[in-house]
Every structure is written in C-alpha cells, then in structure tokens.
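Why run this: before we spend reagent on co-expression, it is cheaper to look at a predicted model of the complex and decide which construct boundaries make sense. The entries below are exactly what would go into the expression plan.
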Amino acid sequence: MAATYDGAIQELIDAFAQLPGIGPKGAQRIAFYILGADRRSAQDLADAIVAAKEKVRFCEICGNVCETSPCPICQDPRRDRSIICVVEEPKDVMSIERTGEYRGLYHVLGGAIDPMSNVGPGDLRIPELLKRLGTDQVKEVMLALDPNIEGEATTTYLGRLLGPLDLRVTRLASGLPVGSDLEYADEITLGRAISGRRDL
Amino acid sequence: MAATYDGAIQELIDAFAQLPGIGPKGAQRIAFYILGADRRSAQDLADAIVAAKEKVRFCEICGNVCETSPCPICQDPRRDRSIICVVEEPKDVMSIERTGEYRGLYHVLGGAIDPMSNVGPGDLRIPELLKRLGTDQVKEVMLALDPNIEGEATTTYLGRLLGPLDLRVTRLASGLPVGSDLEYADEITLGRAISGRRDL
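The model came back. Tokens follow.
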C-alpha cells in the first residue's frame, strides 16, 4: 500500500495544500480537523466558499470587493469625496479602514507594476482612476502602495502621471514602525526616518 | 463603516480562521486567493470537504480512517497479523507507513490519556484492542505513542494492562534524531540515548 490516504481524504488534503500559506502537514491537520468536526460545520465551510464566490463582485467605481456595486464606501454620503487613497489590493482597504484615520474614498489598482511577472501599467485600473480624477470634487490623491520594489515603481509611475494635473499627490510616510527598536531597524528604513524627520 | 468586509467575504474569512493553524491574516489571504481563483477550483474545494465528510468512516477493526470498513490495511493478506502497532491518531498510521519499516497491523486509540482535558482510559479504544489480542494470532504489541507527557502516561498504562498477557510488548526507541547535532540535543533526549545505547 502506498503511503497516501484513501481517495476522499487525500483529495481533501490536496485541495487544502493548494491554498496559500498551507503546507502538506498543515493540510493534513486541517483535513483531520474537518473529519473530526460535526457535519454541520464542514457543510458551513463548503457553503461559505461557494457563497463568497457567487455573491462577491468588484465595485464598478473603486474596484474593491463587495456584494453590492457601488460598494458601501463609495455609496456612503459621510465619506470625504475630495480625497482618493490608491491601494494595490482590496485587503489594503481594510488595513487602512482599521486605523480609523482616513475618511476619504479608495481606488484599488488590482496589483502593482512588476516587470518580472509581466504586470505593466496597462494591467492595472489606472484608466479608471484618471476618469475619476476628471471631476472637480477630487483635490488629493494619496498613494498607499506597499513599501517594496513593485510598490515604489508604481508610486513613481503614478507620481509622474498625476504630476501635471491640478491635484495634491501624496504618499504614506516611511520611517520607524511604532513600538520598534532603533537598534534593529534596517539601514533603508532608518535612512527614510532621517530624511523624513519632522519638527517637534 | 466597521472594519469588516461585506457579509459573504467576512463569513469565508471567519470559516477559515476556525481551522487549526490558520490565523486571521492567513484566513484573509486564503479568502482572497479563492475570490481570485476560477469558479471551478473553488467548487472543487467545497466538494472535497463535503465528499470527505460523507465518504470517510472509521475502520471497525483498527479505528483508522478509510472509505471501506475494514480498511485496506486490515484487509491486506500480505500484512503480518502477528504484530499490532498502537498509535494515537489516524495520521500516525500514515507516518509509520511512510517509513516502509513496518508490515504489521495497526490499532488507533483515538487519543492519549490526558487528565487535564478529561480524557481517561475509558475514552480510548482500549476494549477494542483487548478484544483483538484475544486471538492466538497476535504475538507482539508495539506501542508507538507520542513521546510527550500524555503519550508516556498512555504507554505506562498500556504496559501495565498488557504485561500479564502472554505477549511481547514493545515501544519505539527514544534517542537522538538522525541528522541532528549532539550539542543541541536536550538533556532528556540525550539521557534516553545513553540509557538506550546499543552494542556495535
């Protein structure tokens, strides 16, 4: 007998092992957890997968995931319509919402410029962003891309593209993470913290 | 707006966050992976969960998970029926099968004695084990429980229970893991390796 499980168990393990962040051991652990759980909760998990796939769509305005288009943020009359925060992915919207510091609108690009993966500006929702900027309402675009190579390239590209427009274009501050130790900061982060120093 | 996603997305994240080894960030990452994947593979994952739950049962003889009872190992005429390996969980059967060193039968206890979690000998498949030992065929019981407190307690308990029977009762060797460094071995493991030393 080969060292694999009977059909349905192995198929379940294989299905979980394909998900991001789950290795073969983790997939096995999850599969046995499901086999040990009651039938109802296993069915709930299966239903949640199918329901999310069926119900979820992308907002026609900002590109965020939602069940109604336009999404609740784009529809909310209390949001500040003069500022648009540009992010890479829908999950970045949630990260910024959690801070409670931002009350404007969003624009999800759907990624960042990454020549190694053949993602160019044409693959991102940049025309949709320019169309939104055509109205008088928007006074500021806040670029909130990931602080890595792809995010920096996209920030630079958008900075040049939006520069000629009559808008304030800003980006998130780089510097030391709150609660961290100066001693353990890498040189680039510490350099950014110095060049971006502020008056007390 | 609260910092949660629209209904179906949040339900999917919550469903995954309940699985072992998956935290809130990991659950979010998996949920967005599924939303980005094609509908077919999301449906396959949902189907695998339901199918495994429906098809999988426990072998009436050894307690291993299987689609047919008795399981393929218990039914296999080439297995050595004179030795039974006692393990805690079905996944332990697979770990021992992968070594290719064992050709006997198994008995899955369904856990280990753990007073902290209110698991006593009565909660394990020990009566089923004793019933199997009633036949003349079985000459040896090999205890292969986890080398932790619960596994040791169960090994001790079973050792006393099976001692009076006309059987060889063995346990897995403790010692240094192959490929490891003597310098980094903990004192208990190194102590076991010394007390269990063998002649060359």
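Chain B touches chain A through 59 residues (CB under 8 Å). DSSP finds eight helices and six strands in chain B. Bring this page to Monday's planning discussion.
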